[in-house]
Model the fold of this input.
Amino acid sequence: MSPINRRNFTKTSLIAGSVLFFPGCIIKEKNPSFLFFSEDEAKCIISLCEQIIPADEIFGGSTDAEVVYYIDRQLVSFFKHDSNIYRDSIRKLQNFCFKNFNTKFNKLEIDKQIEIIEMMEQNSLNYSEWQNPSIFFNKIRLHTMQGFYGSPIHGGNKNYISFDILKIDGLLRQRLESPSKISKNAS
Amino acid sequence: MLPKNHVNVVVIGSGAGGGVVAKELSFLGYSVVLFERGKWISYDNNSNDELSDQRNQILGANFGPDFIKNPRSFINKYGDEEVFNSLKGYGNIAECVGSGTVSYGAMAWRFMREDFTMKSIYGHVKGSTLVDWPISYDDLEPYYEKAEWEIGVSGHNKKNSFASNRNKPYPMPPFEINKEGKILEKAAKRLGWNAFPVPMFRNSKPYNGRTPCMRNSICVGNACPISAKNGTHNTVIPMAIQTGNCDLRTECIVSELVIDDKSLVKGVKYFDKNKKMYFQSSDIVVISASANETARLLLNSKSKFFPNGAGNNNDWVGRNLQSHAYTGAVGLFDYDILDFDGPGANIAISNFSHNNKKIIGGGIIHNEFNRLPYQFSQIRPPGSKLWGLEHKKFQKNNFKRLSRINGPIQEMPNFHSRVTVSKKIKDHWGIPVVQFSGKRHYLDHEHCKFLSNKAELLLKEAGAVKTWKNIGGKGQGRGQHQAGTARMGNDKKTSVTNKYGQIHDIDNLFIADGSLIPNNAGFNPSLTIMALGYWVGNYVGNNFKHLLIHQ
Done:
């Protein structure tokens, strides 16, 4: 599978959304998908995260790891203080894309998305309503890394995908997986 | 406010200092109440999650504190007070029984003879309050020994040629050097440097009725699943409780020292976990709440003769706040240099602790404990892509190929780096919180450059295909390794306690923690804090009757 195919594949699967990935949540929660993001906001975040850690020929990226759930959960708890900047930035990013490309960020071609993220990183969007997009970008960059490389107990790193990528095995693997096991036993 | 039955001694804080003091005095038959604002830690509920371990603290800290209930503030660059919206105000500091000794990396360094006489060796340093300690290495040596044997340290007796003399060997042999350490050891030898195993508060063999270390490499920032890492929580605190003389009160926060019109402390006010306030009276109070919280408690305890806080009539409480600026270098190898064989930090070099040209003091360097997947994602050569396919590829290819050498620089204490108490912000219990202000001495960053250069040289010699430096020493030193805020000294005007940790002019009030340390050396300070615990505890125990007659 070529990288692009792989990406297109994950892109399609994410549209099916959380209902397919988290059937358990339907029973537990009134809103089955997100605690903070709207469905539209989530699609934008999923695309951003996927470009920050993309799928490659062998391993999935942020979408497969379900990083969006990590961020969503933290925005109503530990990262509450970041919730405004997320909401604001998503709106500004979508406005920017509508203005320039007449579509949403998440509907753009991958290469275009990457180009826009690079401009966000360098504060070179040239969009008067959004002077410092790098502040938001650096946040989501770190949060994506946390969701992808951290423990699945917080959402993200589904099926320990990043531990496989890093070829972590033996005692270190056991230790790194132990929080999830403890969490499962407790519930 | 409800009174509690009078006891001989109140000890505030159950970390490296307080745990030791409680044990020493309860063994002598004195009744002790040991206050701890945190809880006992259960391994199963707290370990191995990188995002909430004590090193990263991104999603809270497994070993405490809760920063919502326990906020801290700082004076920002505009001169305004700002509250930390994360655990950044704590910098890895813990809050539990044993405190930092549960989750620490557990290096068990003795300071060097030279560290006690810095002013005599290096002279006056402009802008710094660098001094000689009021006690010498020889004064503290027997207490270092006691800490090594009672808490449990493994180490090599001879290989560190820069170590000051010891009268008794380490109780346990050193750990075998891991793969990375062996490569670095050979490189150090080629450079003419002396590499040796890091002394560790870890069992390298069965000790004190507990099992040896299983060489898990992620125990820094986490608890040990088999209790082979030694802190006060699994040694002196259980010993104290077993005497029947020590009452450990967890989830209890002391808000104020009650000082009478005769300049004596009568006891403490504290809140229990139900936020109910009590008065605990005692003959003697020993504060071991850590450099930040000890200063806060003194400043929050105002009385007739101490209107600016206990022991603060000369405005030295909270001053000279230090920690350790970490500095070093990273090397990328073209093979897997890491085998993740714990305890990770494995070899050290002490050639640069003293006797450096144009440098005041210095520091050790050692290989780093670990870098777990998230932390590793933030380590890249300068100019690298920080996201995207290239970043992911680096992550995939180099997780086991990166060696990091770093160490703590000896910070130059300065009067303006300080802890005060906030006039506006109060914690969950209504107690004014720690407020930080000031910054490190400008020389700290210069000294860091020096030590980083040495670290990079070692990595290059070891065959790294690419190296880069991380140079520390800016900002304020206030997190882990905190020290200096109630320094001991012979002159009342420039110190807070005498050489026994006894607060000037309050004869029954003592300190036994890192606050006492005048200059914090270039070593992790926990063994020194424990030794000070034995030093102060021993003095209080031997002079108890005299201290009472005085009252």
User: Anything to note?
Assistant: Residues 345 and 402 of chain B are 14 Å apart (CA to CA). The longest strand of chain B covers residues 2-12. Chain B has a mean pLDDT of 96. Chain B is about 25% helix and 20% strand.
